[in-house]
Specification:
single chain, 375 residues, alpha/beta, five-stranded parallel β-sheet, 15 helices, 13 strands, globular
């Protein structure tokens, strides 16, 4: 029972992560789930819903569909919608019920590809994982199915991997990231996938380096490295950490080797500041704090995708009880405001709202990550 949550909410689910990753790419995303479940995604986990159109649909499973499968109805509905809307691709996103029923999504995708002559792929979600896994799997499938190696190479450019509003919530964050990289001498080849141009998505193989700005981009970076030999840098150009990220991009281009600059940038030792949240954003902010203030930091990561993303002073934390125990020794906590309820009394607490954790509760208090500083 140690992973039971009594006080804190859980992070956004893998279905939300998958939909966020694919939102702007011009494909048709179909969540196979009962009617009404779409509201959870578009009400709590998606800030673009009322500003930017996307072809995201719900299959509207009935009790009979759940019991019998009724794949013919699902296929017929998708074919009808795709015939009217002409999407670039079809992505099927799973929910717990069809997962438990063993729905053959791979087989359904083959039928859709044969009938529509466009890519169709399955994002392996099941409602039992968090958004980092779902978005990561969605970007991975996109890297496998939507990217070819036929385009002309674009020396000196960079791909941004892993941008979604679940980590970069403020409107215009994608364009801001592109501007920072361009001003530093690294024009953006493709942005995956916030404020992005879907026309550039498939040309990711043209860039000589990838920048992983959240854990959602890790799987795709590994796939693009495997397929095309493109090295990747893990880290977001936030605050005082931005110059280290730019230097790592240059090194990766020159050597062809992957870089994790926050590990070299941070001193380690007894932490003065404890940050809680997604590993790439929080380790980047931690590195910025150390470079700007000289204080030592640690990151407590409650999300799932952490492999190769954390430093020696950081730790992956599973469950509310484990998080509460890890926070006992903290001297200064930086976390979503909801973490106050499991933080020690009297310890300085700097709120940093996280859409993927507290939804829209603190949306108006969400800061600009690119200029955020420890108070």
């Amino acid at each position: 029972m140690k992973n039971t949550y009594q006080i804190l909410p859980v992070y956004s689910g893998d279905v939300s992560g998958a939909c966020a990753a694919l939102y702007e790419l011009g494909g048709m995303v179909v969540m196979h789930d009962p009617s009404g479940c779409n509201s959870t995604y578009n009400t709590f986990d998606e800030v673009r819903w009322y500003e930017k159109e996307s072809l995201i649909f719900l299959s509207g499973m009935t009790d009979v569909d759940a019991i019998t499968g009724n794949d013919k109805k699902l296929i017929a509905d998708i074919l009808m919608a795709a015939g009217e809307l002409h999407p670039r691709f079809i992505a099927l996103v799973n929910s717990p019920i069809p997962f438990l029923n063993g729905t053959d999504f791979a087989g359904i995708c083959r039928i859709l590809e044969d009938r529509l002559n466009i890519p169709a792929f399955y994002v392996s979600t099941n409602g039992a994982h968090d958004y980092t896994e779902g978005a990561g799997q969605a970007f991975l499938q996109a890297a496998r199915r939507l990217v070819d190696g036929n385009g002309e190479k674009r020396p000196g450019t960079v791909n941004i991997l892993g941008m979604t509003p679940l980590n970069y919530t403020l409107s215009g964050s994608g364009k801001r990231m592109e501007a920072i990289l361009t001003e530093a001498g690294f024009p953006v080849n493709a942005n995956w996938a916030l404020d992005c141009d879907p026309e550039t998505f498939s040309r990711a193989s043209a860039a000589p380096v990838n920048l992983v700005v959240s854990s959602a981009g890790l799987y795709a970076a590994e796939e693009l490295h495997r397929r095309f030999g493109i090295p990747y840098v893990i880290g977001a150009p936030l605050g005082g950490f931005a110059p280290a990220v730019m230097e790592a991009l240059k090194t990766a281009m020159e050597t062809g080797e992957n870089q994790v600059p926050h590990i070299q940038s941070r001193k380690g030792g007894e932490p003065d500041v404890t940050l809680v949240g997604e590993p790439v954003v929080m380790t980047s902010l931690a590195a910025s704090i150390e470079l700007e203030t000289g204080k030592t930091t640690e990151v407590l990561c409650p999300t799932e995708v952490t492999r190769g993303l954390l430093g020696s002073a950081d730790q992956s934390v599973a469950g509310e009880a484990e998080m509460q125990e890890a926070l006992r020794s903290a001297r200064h906590i930086v976390a979503d405001p909801l973490y106050r309820s499991v933080s020690p009394e009297g310890v300085p607490f700097t709120p940093l709202p996280d859409l993927a954790f507290s939804g829209r509760l603190y949306l108006k208090q969400t800061p600009d990550l690119f200029t955020w500083k420890l108070s």
